[in-house]
Amino acid sequence: MSTEALSDDFLLLIVSSPSGAGKTTLCGRLRSEFPDLRFSVSHTTRRPRPNEVDGREYHFVDPNTFEQMIRIGAFAEWARVHDHLYGTSLKEIEIARATARGVLFDIDHQGARQIKASLPEAVAVFILPPSLAELERRLRGRGTEDEPTTLRRLRNAKGEIEHYGFFDYVIVNDEINRAYEQLRSLVFAERCRRQRRAALCERLLSERRFER
Ligand SMILES: Nc1ncnc2c1ncn2[C@@H]1O[C@H](COP(=O)(O)OP(=O)(O)OP(=O)(O)O)[C@@H](O)[C@H]1O
Ligand SMILES: Nc1nc2c(ncn2[C@@H]2O[C@H](COP(=O)(O)O)[C@@H](O)[C@H]2O)c(=O)[nH]1
């Protein structure tokens, strides 16, 4: 990690997991505790769930609009996940840079790799369920997907876990409070990285005080 890459205080935090492991729940808590960490609202071609609001959880668009956005280079990253298209627009990152102290991405491992390729200072966290049986219980318990979608997501889980080696941190979401405590600790720790403090150190060193 280069000093230059971390020379500002802006945190790019990626959270990924297999479907149902709990990243939306954990990101929701982060958003409440750290309002200066702006949630990146992705574009997707999947249909909204009953409780989801366009522009809040996602920008819900049709496939033609999504493909047009790909053509004009509007995305920082995009991927096909569970048979739908999902993408992070460059605009989301620009807005976060202009208005917040960081940006929180809830994206899959393909998107995480693309973000890291262009923004290597990004910090990537993978959330694991304690077991596959518990993953299934959670996804079914959430009750948002029909049976074919549930099965597709469960069948994709191992393929996603295979990518754990790419991530900087792995958190096991067994007990939600414990997992959240670990995630928030990461935010604090990342904000204390030496490289993010370089500007302050240089400023203190340049002050003309206590000099003989
Ligand atoms: N530690 C936990 N213990 C028990 N249930 C949990 C825990 N964490 C999350 N859940 C529940 O599991 C379900 C799935 O969680 P959530 O929607 O956050 O998963 P997700 O990883 O965001 O899934 P997706 O990728 O499908 O959006 C939700 O009903 C949530 O309340
Ligand atoms: N590569 C990207 N993946 C994304 C993005 N937004 C969400 N996701 C991932 O998709 C799945 C499914 O999400 P769901 O809301 O339909 O359950 C999950 O792994 C998300 O992290 C994105 O912009 N790019």
Automatic annotation (TrEMBL):
Annotated membrane-spanning segments are none
- Keywords annotated in UniProt: ATP-binding, Cytoplasm, Kinase, Nucleotide-binding, Transferase
What domain of life is recorded for the organism? Bacteria
Family annotation (CDD domains): GMPK
For whether the record's keyword set contains GTP-binding, the answer is: no
A matching Pfam family: Guanylate_kin
EC top class named in words: transferase
Q: Which residues form the Guanylate kinase-like domain?
A: 10-188
GO terms of molecular function:
ATP binding; GMP kinase activity
Entry's Gene Ontology cellular component terms: cytosol
Instruction: Supply the EC number(s).
Output: 2.7.4.8
Q: Where does ATP bind?
A: S17, P18, S19, G20, A21, G22, K23, T24
Q: What is its main location?
A: cytoplasm
Show the catalytic activity. Answer: GMP + ATP = GDP + ADP
Reply yes or no: does the keyword rRNA-binding apply. no
Report the InterPro entries cross-referenced here: GK/Ca_channel_bsu, Guanylate_kin-like_dom, Guanylate_kinase, Guanylate_kinase_CS, P-loop_NTPase
User: What family classification does the UniProt entry report for this protein?
Assistant: Belongs to the guanylate kinase family.
According to its UniProt entry, the function of this protein is described as: Essential for recycling GMP and indirectly, cGMP.
- NCBIfam families according to UniProt: guanyl_kin
Which HAMAP family does the UniProt entry name for this protein?
Answer: Guanylate_kinase (MF_00328)
Q: What is this protein called?
A: Guanylate kinase
Native species: Sorangium cellulosum (strain So ce56) (Polyangium cellulosum (strain So ce56))
